[in-house]
Write a structure and sequence with these properties.
This protein has about 160 residues and is α+β, with helices and mostly antiparallel strands. Helix content is about 65%, strand content about 15%. It has three helices and four strands. The protein is rod-shaped, with a radius of gyration of 26 Å.
């Protein structure tokens, strides 16, 4: 019911004579669609990064409970692990981006990853707001194209 009232409200406020040509509306709609695809991909990548950093925090917490000298498997890639013996659970090597790694305390690494999660959450909020705006723009353009098309058919 709400959708119908929005549609009829939009129709009454959109004057087909004041709208750009149907071709211009379609071109703009295609541009908005490309932006939506990019923003959706960015949102997905941010969610993946948030999950990885959150998992790192959990793993570092678990590492603090593992006694030194314990045998374990260390991930080299997503599917390859090497056996190793834990020398200490207090110092870890963290990837700080662009291929650089830094040795730091476990607590410092957890704080680092916690800050990264906070940054990502802030970026997610911005991307989500932009996505919503683009989705609304796409809906408006769809409605404008419909109104313009109907006006051209009525001539």
């Amino acid at each position: 019911c709400n959708r119908m009232s929005n549609s009829s409200a939009s129709q009454s406020t959109l004057d087909p004579a004041k709208l750009p040509s149907l071709q211009e509306l379609q071109n703009t709609r295609m541009q908005v669609e490309k932006e939506l695809e990019f923003l959706t991909a960015s949102h997905s990548q941010l969610l993946d990064a948030k999950t990885r950093f959150s998992d790192n925090i959990t793993l570092l917490d678990h590492l603090g409970k593992v006694p030194a000298g314990q045998q374990m498997l260390v991930p080299i890639t997503n599917s390859m692990f090497l056996p190793a013996r834990l020398v200490t659970n207090e110092r870890v090597t963290t990837d700080i981006g662009t291929g650089y790694q830094v040795e730091r305390s476990r607590e410092s690494a957890q704080a680092f990853y916690g800050r990264r999660v906070e940054q990502i959450v802030d970026n997610l909020k911005k991307v989500e707001a932009t996505l919503l705006g683009k989705q609304n723009a796409a809906k408006f353009l769809d409605e404008a194209m419909r109104v313009k098309y109907e006006a051209e058919q009525g001539k």
